[in-house]
Each structure stands twice: as structure tokens, then as C-alpha cells.
């Protein structure tokens, strides 16, 4: 794709994102302190939902047959704070497959098991600048998966999961993601079967990784486990809790369970910031200002360190595979709630 063609597909955050009728707080808030009360958060979620629920740009993913049947009108938003308070609007209880958002949490679990340096050496942490399922990115990097949030890096990470059999690896992943969510997560069997029947590209990527000596487990079994992890069912309420667990130093704010170390949460958020929305990650960080991760079913998680997590769901996607409404809502709420980690105000010596 030529630069001019790619540039034309960049997400347009300007349309209605910060309209003139937006509350003054949208322009004033900075990333300090804590989240406002639940009533204020709910009002802002309702405002974001009303602004973008009729936005009809983008298209539902259809390269996975079961995802192509999604209702494009679905739109849910949820927030969970690090103290456990949560609120939702719209289709927040609608279950959908987690897809690529699972990469974040599997990476965190593997980092917790193997350590910072080992995972950085084996997987990498740099953006490819190419689509998430690119074979060219792997070839151009001499087999380096580059980062855990593209398919090559995600399958490398899945291959590193503790366990000597695919059943053991799958049990570790399912249990770990369930602890992030605070309750047992189930597989959408229809999605799993649909993906398993059409995942030849991922199997080819796994074989290519093996040829470069990068795959630590059988490539076909690894691809199958990876396909299962992407098929786990979640809601936006689940995603908000999972995101808030990363925001809370690895401790689930609902159950109080420590899922991963605080240092692992830090490493995971750093990778999300650079690669969470694929080749549009720079645009996301510039506009939203906090780590995020998308999935092709239409989900996005947004993590405000020390504050909480936002989960969004809407199936219409942009050219990179990111939810169009979810991105707009995240930008609006980041500004309104003061989540942007790069925002600041000049020190006022009069105020001390």
C-alpha cells in the first residue's frame, strides 16, 4: 500500500470528537488524582454513547465467517476503577470473542512466568508498522516476531506459555485470563470452529517462525491454542475489569487477587502504548494518550495507570482492524476523565 493510500485510511478523530457543546471539563482535565464519582463517569459514558452510536463508517470483519454475522449497531461502554467501582452503558452485557485483546493478557502471564529480559529477547517489543498478520514483517526482520501484539509475536508468546502439552498450555491461559476478568471465561465454540477452519495464514506464520528457530512449541498445536484464546467470550464489563487489573499493578480490583506483578503490568502497558492498535498505534497514542489494545470482533481496552480501565465494543472496524466507534469514545473519555498520561498544566507558584 502506497503512503498516500495508507494515509487516506487513517482514523479521523476530528469528526465530532470534541464538539463545541462538549463540557468544559473535556478541555481542562489532566492525568492526575483519581477517577470522578460513578455518577459523573456514567454521565460521560452516556454522552460518548449518544455521540457515536449512529456513526456508521467502517465495516464488520468478514475474513472470519462467524464474525461477519455481528450486528454493526452494537455499541457498549464500561469503566472500572482501581478501587472496584464500575459502570456501563449500551450493549455492555453483550458477549463477544476477545480476539487479539487476549494477546495483552497472555503476554502478561508469560512475562510473569519467565521474566522481563527473557520475553523481551524471545518476542521483542518494537512496532512493525505493518498489518497485524503480515508475513513480510517477519521476513524483513529475519524472523524476529517484533512484538507480542501482532500475530507472529502473539503465537511466539503462546508457545512460551508454561506446560509441556497443548492442554496444559490452554488450561494455563484460560485460568489466567479468567483471573484477570474475575470469573471463569468460556470459549465461543462457533467462533473457534470458524477460525480453526480458516486460520491457514496463522499456521503458515507459525511454520515460518519455526523455520527461523523462534517457535518453542509445535507450531500447529500452538496455532490451535492461540485460536482458542482468541475465542474466549467477554463483555465490555469484563474488559474494563481486565484493563483495571493492569491499571492496578496486576491486582484485580473486584476479587482482590494478585494476577501478575506490578512490574509485569508496567511492561505490558509499555508494549500496548507502542503497538496496541497496530500500524495506527501512533495515531492512537497521539489522540488518546493512554495504552490501548483492539480486537477484530470490535473490542478495545484502554488502561489509565493508577486510575482504571475502559472497555468498549462496536463491530465496525477501520482499515487496520480497530473499532471506529470505540476509538472515538476512548478519545472523548480520555479527555473528559483526565486519563491522558501526557497531559499536564504549568505549575502555579501562587497555589503552592
Q: Structural class given helices, strands, pairing?
A: alpha+beta
CATH superfamily of the largest domain: DD-peptidase/beta-lactamase superfamily
Mean pLDDT: 90
Number of strands: 7
Describe the sheet with the most strands.
5 strands, antiparallel
Beta percentage is 5-15%
- Large-scale geometry: globular
Rg, alpha carbons: 19 Å
Which stretches are low in confidence, meaning pLDDT under 50 for 5 or more residues running? 1-10, 14-28
Q: What percent of the residues sit in helical stretches (DSSP H or I)?
A: 40-55%
The name of the CATH architecture of the largest domain is 3-Layer(aba) Sandwich
The fold-level CATH name of the largest domain is Beta-lactamase
Domain count? 2
The secondary-structure element order is: HHHEEEHHHHHHHHEHHHEEEH
Query: CATH top level of the largest domain?
Result: Alpha Beta
The number of helical segments is 15
**CA(first)-CA(last) distance:** 53 Å
Q: How is the largest sheet built, in terms of strand order?
A: 2-1-7-6-5
Key attributes of the depicted protein:
alpha+beta, Beta-lactamase, 2 domains, five-stranded antiparallel beta sheet, 15 helices, 44% helix, globular
Structure in a nutshell:
The protein has 15 helices and seven strands.
Structural write-up:
The protein is α+β, with helices and mostly antiparallel strands and 352 residues long. The protein has 2 domains: 25-100 and 233-343, DD-peptidase/beta-lactamase superfamily (Beta-lactamase), CATH 3.40.710.10; 102-230, Beta-lactamase (3-Layer(aba) Sandwich), CATH 3.40.710.10. It is built from 15 helices and 7 strands. It has helices at residues 3-8, 25-28, 38-52, 102-114, 116-122, 136-140, 151-159, 166-181, 189-196, 200-211, 219-230, 236-247, 262-275, 281-287, 324-337; strands spanning 76-81, 86-90, 96-97, 233-234, 292-294, 299-304, 308-313. It has a 5-stranded antiparallel beta sheet. It has a two-stranded antiparallel sheet with strand order 3-4. Helix 7 (151-159) packs across helix 11. It is globular, with a radius of gyration of 19 Å. 54% of the residues are buried.
Amino acid at each position: 500500500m502506497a503512503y498516500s493510500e495508507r494515509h487516506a485510511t487513517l482514523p479521523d478523530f476530528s469528526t465530532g470528537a470534541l464538539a463545541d457543546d462538549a463540557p468544559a471539563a473535556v478541555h481542562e482535565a489532566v492525568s492526575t488524582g483519581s477517577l470522578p464519582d460513578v455518577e459523573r463517569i456514567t454521565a460521560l459514558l452516556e454522552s460518548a454513547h449518544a455521540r457515536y452510536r449512529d456513526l456508521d463508517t467502517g465495516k464488520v470483519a468478514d475474513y472470519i465467517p462467524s464474525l461477519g454475522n455481528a450486528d454493526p449497531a452494537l455499541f457498549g461502554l464500561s469503566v472500572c476503577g482501581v478501587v472496584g467501582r464500575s459502570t456501563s452503558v449500551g450493549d455492555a452485557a453483550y458477549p463477544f470473542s476477545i480476539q487479539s485483546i487476549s494477546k495483552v493478557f497472555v503476554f502478561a502471564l508469560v512475562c510473569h512466568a519467565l521474566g522481563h529480559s527473557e520475553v523481551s529477547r524471545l518476542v521483542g517489543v518494537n512496532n512493525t508498522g505493518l498489518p497485524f498478520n503480515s508475513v513480510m514483517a517477519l521476513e524483513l526482520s529475519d524472523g524476529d516476531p517484533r512484538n507480542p501484539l501482532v500475530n507472529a509475536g502473539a503465537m511466539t508468546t503462546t508457545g512460551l506459555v508454561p506446560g509441556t502439552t497443548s492442554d496444559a498450555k490452554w488450561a494455563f491461559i484460560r485460568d489466567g485470563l479468567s483471573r484477570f476478568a474475575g470469573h471463569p471465561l468460556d470459549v465461543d465454540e462457533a467462533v473457534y470452529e470458524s477460525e480453526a477452519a480458516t486460520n491457514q495464514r496463522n499456521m503458515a506464520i507459525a511454520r515460518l517462525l519455526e523455520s527461523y528457530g523462534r517457535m518453542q512449541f509445535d507450531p500447529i498445536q500452538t496455532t490451535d491454542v492461540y485460536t482458542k484464546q482468541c475465542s474466549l467470550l467477554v463483555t465490555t464489563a469484563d474488559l474494563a475489569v481486565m484493563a483495571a487489573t493492569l491499571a492496578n499493578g496486576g491486582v484485580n480490583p473486584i476479587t482482590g487477587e494478585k494476577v501478575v506483578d506490578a512490574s509485569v503490568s508496567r511492561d505490558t502497558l509499555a508494549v500496548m502504548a507502542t503497538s496496541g492498535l497496530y500500524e495506527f498505534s501512533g495515531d492512537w497514542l497521539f489522540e488518546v494518550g493512554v495504552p490501548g489494545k483492539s480486537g477484530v470482533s470490535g473490542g478495545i481496552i484502554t488502561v489509565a495507570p493508577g486510575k482504571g480501565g475502559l472497555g468498549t465494543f462496536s463491530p465496525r472496524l477501520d482499515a487496520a482492524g480497530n473499532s471506529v466507534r470505540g476509538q472515538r469514545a476512548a478519545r472523548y473519555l480520555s479527555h473528559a476523565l483526565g486519563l491522558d498520561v501526557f497531559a499536564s498544566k504549568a505549575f502555579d507558584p501562587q497555589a503552592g
